[in-house]
Amino acid sequence: MLDIWRTALGLDTAYADCSIEQFDGLSVNDLIAQRMRQWYLNLLDTADPALLPTADIAARCTRVARPDNATAITLPDDCRRVIHIRAASWPMPIAPEADTARAALLGHPFAAPTARRPLAIAALRSILIAPCAPADAIEVVAVVDPGDQLYSLDESLLATIPSTL
């Protein structure tokens, strides 16, 4: 990836008729690596999920059942964003929403979430879903960060590499 970035920045132009001198100063490769990581994390947070690495991370999530027929799910550290979530009793997966005020519906006798109208509320590192019994199987499909040195993405996203630092 560093070579791709150096080429995009015009830093790998080969000149056969020049000499090279070394001096102590700014490490261009370190600067590029830092910007490269920021660029990649931004892609993981904002780009079309079809162009990024996704996985069902349900087995790595921590679940805590609540008495109001809801379940709190804690996400693993490598999860950048949840694309959709589904409990076994739901007819289809849903995308989590950030509206925490909807959590007040959990105890409402007429507006509580049902399997036909489930609820998934995203917080910082967790998601509250309802209805969800403690034994229900769940699916949590998320964009995941493969690590500091790995860049997994669709080749079309390489066009978004900036041409300047």
Number of helices: 2
- Arithmetic mean pLDDT: 89
Number-wise, the strands total 7
Poorly predicted regions: none
Q: How many angstroms separate the termini?
A: 15 Å
Strand order of the largest sheet: 2-3-6-5
Percentage of residues in helical conformation: 10-25%
Main sheet summary? 4 strands, antiparallel
Q: Any idea what the radius of gyration is?
A: 22 Å
Secondary-structure element pattern, one letter each: HHEEEEEEE
Mass-distribution shape: elongated
Going by helix content, strand content and strand pairing, the class is: alpha+beta
Classify the beta-strand content into a percent band. 15-25%
Could you please describe the fold and organization of this structure?
- The protein has 165 residues and is an alpha+beta fold.
- Helices cover 16% and strands 22% of the residues.
- The protein has 2 helices and 7 strands; from the N terminus they run ααβββββββ.
- It has helices spanning 2-8, 28-46, and strands at residues 54-56, 62-65, 71-74, 79-87, 119-122, 126-130, 138-144.
- A 4-stranded antiparallel β-sheet has the order 2-3-6-5, with no helix packed on it. Strands 1-7-4 form a 3-stranded antiparallel β-sheet.
- The longest helix is centred in the N-terminal third of the chain and has 19 residues, at 28-46.
- The two termini are 15 Å apart.
